[in-house]
Specification:
Layout lengths: L24 H6 L5 H5 L6 H10 L9 H4 L10 H6 L28 E5 L2 E5 L29 H9 L6 E5 L8 H12 L6 E6 L1 H4 L6 H7 L5 E6 L8 H12 L4 E7 L7 H13 L3 E7 L13 H11 L10 E6 L4 E5 L4 E5 L2 E5 L5 E5 L6 H9 L8
Parallel strand pairs: 2-3, 3-4, 4-5, 5-6, 6-7, 7-8
Antiparallel strand pairs: 1-2, 8-9, 10-11, 11-12
Helix pairs in contact: 7-9
This protein binds iron/sulfur cluster.
Iron/sulfur cluster (SF4) binds next to loops.
Length: 394
């Protein structure tokens, strides 16, 4: 039976004297675990991890907030939290199918920092920094600032592009994590976007409610709610990430009228079972978050040890659909390698199609036939007309 409780893990690996500052964002950021010495002072590492940490300095930085670090189970070398944020030597191997920019974002930037791939919406990369860094990050080519490539968002040119591109009705702010900005800076960005009449809808992609829930304050929510309709996609992979602090933060966002969806990435040894996924989606609903996407892990360089097969993802959806609330089931997707966009993947429920009928199976494997509509016979139609009936009602 999965643990569905919402617990605080503070102070965990930190001394009790740290408790008065635990809720301070600055303290959390200043005390991030970001060096081998920091890490080894708290956790016994394997050789695979130690070598991975040394490699990370030139690839994707390691940095873990105390809040998130506390979720690591020190007794479990394969802890699902640990696998997400502590580098491993496998990151140093690039499989033949892997890519630096798996979603082909760089080739769809009319202005540096602004990705325009779908006609009516854009992805605005506003920062390269996050509170902690995920080892499978699809934007690890720029995120954290230690790799060879750097994000150089051209703010004014991006706003001007949006002003003169009326087909864009939806802007997704992402990065990096936009909620690392101050309230004032976020307010300025959102105000500027809201001044563009054709932008109907703004979204923010963030992992802050999970990595640094202390950042979600009533003051931040007051800023965000000025700019509705504003949706938020959070990023949670394992039920343990939904702590007491995360639930409180998500409650504040929900009270501010922000619809919340979750995007998780299917990761080997983290959430690659029906049991873990079911606990995750149930806890998300309890936090007023709708499970939105389950991503097949992108083909980012050095990710093969974290990727599962596509069939495993489909089997997980098969194990959820019909076995729990429909609202709890995310859409499983692959981002088409190289820039193909999101492609939905579903278990096969259609067994056969023939003229006039579809043969289907339900979640229990029972088989049903659904007859397709057939044109109404002319004699019936004539009879209806004769009685003054309209076939479509009305
Ligand atoms: S929070 Fe998002 S952008 Fe930041 S490292 Fe994780 S996946 Fe990448």
């Amino acid at each position: 039976m999965s643990d569905l409780s919402f617990r605080s893990h503070a102070p965990g690996y930190w001394p009790h004297e740290a408790m008065p500052q635990w809720r301070e964002v600055r303290w959390q950021l200043r005390n991030r675990v970001d060096s081998l010495a920091d890490l080894e002072a708290r956790l016994k590492l394997s050789d695979i991890e130690r070598a991975g940490v040394l490699l990370a300095g030139s690839k994707l930085a390691m940095s873990i907030t105390p809040h998130f670090f506390n979720l690591i189970d020190r007794q479990d070398p394969e802890c699902p939290i640990r696998r997400q944020v502590i580098p491993r030597i496998e990151e140093g191997w690039t499989a033949p199918e892997e890519l630096t920019d798996p979603c082909g974002e760089d080739s769809h930037m009319p202005v540096p920092g602004l990705v325009h791939r779908y006609p009516d919406r854009v992805l605005f990369l506003v920062t390269d920094r996050c509170a902690s860094y995920c080892r499978y990050c699809t934007r690890s080519r720029v995120v954290s600032g230690v790799g060879e490539q750097h994000l150089e968002t051209q703010w004014e040119a991006a706003f001007k592009y949006l002003e003169r591109t009326p087909q864009v009705r939806d802007v997704l702010l992402s990065g990096g994590d936009p909620l690392l900005f101050s309230d004032e800076r976020l307010d300025r960005i959102l105000t500027r976007l809201r001044a563009i009449p054709h932008i109907q809808f703004i979204r923010i992609g963030t992992r802050i409610p999970i990595f640094l829930p202390q950042r979600i304050t009533p003051e931040l929510c007051a800023v965000l709610k000025k700019h509705h309709p504003l949706f938020m996609s959070i990023h949670t992979n394992h039920p343990r990430e939904l702590t007491a602090e995360a639930r409180e933060a998500l409650g504040l966002l929900a009270e501010a009228g922000i619809p919340l969806g979750n995007q998780s990435v299917l990761l080997r040894g983290v959430n690659d079972s029906v049991e873990v996924q079911k606990a995750l989606v149930h806890k998300l609903l309890m936090c007023r978050v709708r499970p939105y996407y389950l991503y097949q892990c992108d083909l980012i360089n050095g990710s093969s040890h974290l990727r599962t097969s596509v069939a495993e993802g489909i089997a997980i959806i098969d194990g959820l659909r019909g076995h729990t609330t429909g609202y709890a089931i995310p859409q499983f997707v692959i981002d088409g390698p190289g820039g193909g966009g999101k492609i939905p993947l579903n278990p096969q429920y259609i067994i056969d199609t023939a003229p006039g009928k579809v043969t289907l199976r339900n979640y229990e494997g029972e088989v049903f036939e659904y007859p397709d509509p057939v044109p109404m016979p002319a004699t019936v139609l004539a009879r209806l007309h004769a009685h003054g009936c309209q076939p479509q009602g009305g």
